[in-house]
Specification:
The structure is a single chain. The chain has 400 residues and is α/β, with parallel strands linked by helices. It is built from 13 helices and 14 strands. It is globular.
């Protein structure tokens, strides 16, 4: 059998230049978030299949990489369907594992607990530009904070991080899942189909209102009710109170959004605006939801929201929670397209030697203790190319 040289479709190798940028961005992120009091945690890549298929992940649950049972548990003779063959899967996001983590460890954690987690996730998606089957996620979450202090701190922390990478002109869309639910109720569409209706609405950017309407009608919803529902989105969105007045939205929910918008705007000078068509794909959201975009990219580079019911699925206790995930891969792509240069104040020296010399090893070690980056290499036959590559990487060349 011949070996295949390329990575599995939808996954990538990272050369040193790529890894240097990725590690730098992660360091900036870590430094920023820790200043906001977030603590680093980690969860396994594998999760019990029951946790991953609990109707909280929306369409992502259709993209789970499932893992076969092993040994005696893999009973091939008594199979009713494919699910009988699996007991675990690769995580498709970090929120589901995080909620399980918190349920397991809450007695040992601070309350409220501020979590920062990075790691690869996997989705059996169709690979295309900017979309992979294996990709990095970076999540900030707060457990035990029921007020909008959680949303304000999360959004402010992410904006602070992005500014350190020289991103400007943020556009932040904000909505509330309870407003979306109330609009469905007001339109007399079936409330038990709320998740399905919002999955269709979430495709608005791709298929437009006519496409959303067609999809809802194809699912046998009443035409008049569908039209009344979609007409609600045509109203003026500049004032949340006026927008929500027709369907008698709870005043506290509206005031909560207004307070988040006002506070974060004053803190960061970012552009926050109410957007009633913002859905966020995950059905576990229970309150405010938000997405952030920057110049140069039409789609979002991050988003999140409140998910106050998630921990209840793993522990017999209600715990308010809110999170924000940054689209790490999109961020890296943007930085590379901009020709971003990693700031580096460390001196880099490359000693090129022709033969063994103990003195150069001692000298290099002493310089490393001083904080310099020192590389020792034997002189290649193609010294010109060797020198060009080292200089490209920022090394001062010293022949020894």
């Amino acid at each position: 059998m011949a070996f295949i040289k390329t990575p599995v479709k939808g996954t990538r190798d990272f050369v040193p230049e790529d890894m240097a940028l990725r590690e730098y961005v992660l360091r900036v992120m870590k430094d920023t978030y820790q200043k906001f009091g977030f603590e680093i945690i980690a969860t396994p890549c594998l999760e019990h299949i029951e946790n991953l298929t609990n109707k909280q992940g929306g369409d992502n649950e259709k993209l789970i990489f499932k893992i076969l049972k092993r040994g005696e548990k893999l009973d091939l003779e008594n199979i009713n369907n494919v699910d009988d063959l699996v007991d675990t899967g690769l995580r498709y996001d970090l929120t589901v594992p995080l909620s399980r983590f918190y349920a397991n460890n809450m007695n040992e954690l601070n309350s409220p607990f501020r979590s920062f987690q990075t790691g690869f996730v996997w989705r059996a998606d169709r690979p295309q530009k900017g979309r992979f089957r294996e990709f990095m996620q970076c999540d900030l979450d707060i457990f035990g904070e029921k007020t909008n202090l959680g949303e304000i701190e999360l959004i402010t922390a992410v904006i602070t991080f992005l500014k350190k990478l020289n991103f400007q002109n943020f556009q932040i869309k904000i909505n509330d899942r309870r407003i979306l639910t109330k609009m469905i109720e007001y339109s007399l569409l079936p409330m038990e189909k709320t998740d399905d209706i919002l999955i269709s609405l979430d495709k608005l950017d791709k298929i437009g209102f006519e496409g959303v309407k067609e999809e809802l009608l194809n699912n046998n919803y009443d035409k008049e009710k569908v039209e009344n529902y979609l007409d609600l989105f045509a109203k003026d969105k500049s004032d949340i109170c006026n927008f929500c007045q027709e369907f008698n939205m709870d005043e506290d929910i509206v005031n909560n959004l207004q307070e988040i918008i006002k506070t974060v705007t004053n803190l960061t000078n970012a552009n926050l605006s109410f957007n009633p068509t913002l859905v966020r794909g995950m059905s576990y959201y229970t309150g405010p939801i938000f997405e952030i975009t920057v110049e140069d990219l039409a789609s979002s580079i991050g988003g999140g929201g409140r998910y106050d019911k998630m921990v209840e699925k793993y522990a017999n206790i209600s715990v308010p929670a809110v999170g924000f995930s940054v689209g790490f891969e999109r961020l890296i792509l943007l930085l590379k397209e901009r020709g971003f240069i990693i700031p580096n104040n460390q001196e880099k020296i490359a000693y090129i030697i022709k033969e063994h010399n103990e003195e150069i090893y001692k000298k290099a070690n002493n310089e490393r203790k001083e904080g310099k980056i020192v590389k020792i290499s034997y002189r290649n036959k193609n010294f010109k190319f060797q020198k060009e590559q080292l200089e490209k990487d920022g090394y001062k060349i010293i022949e020894w």
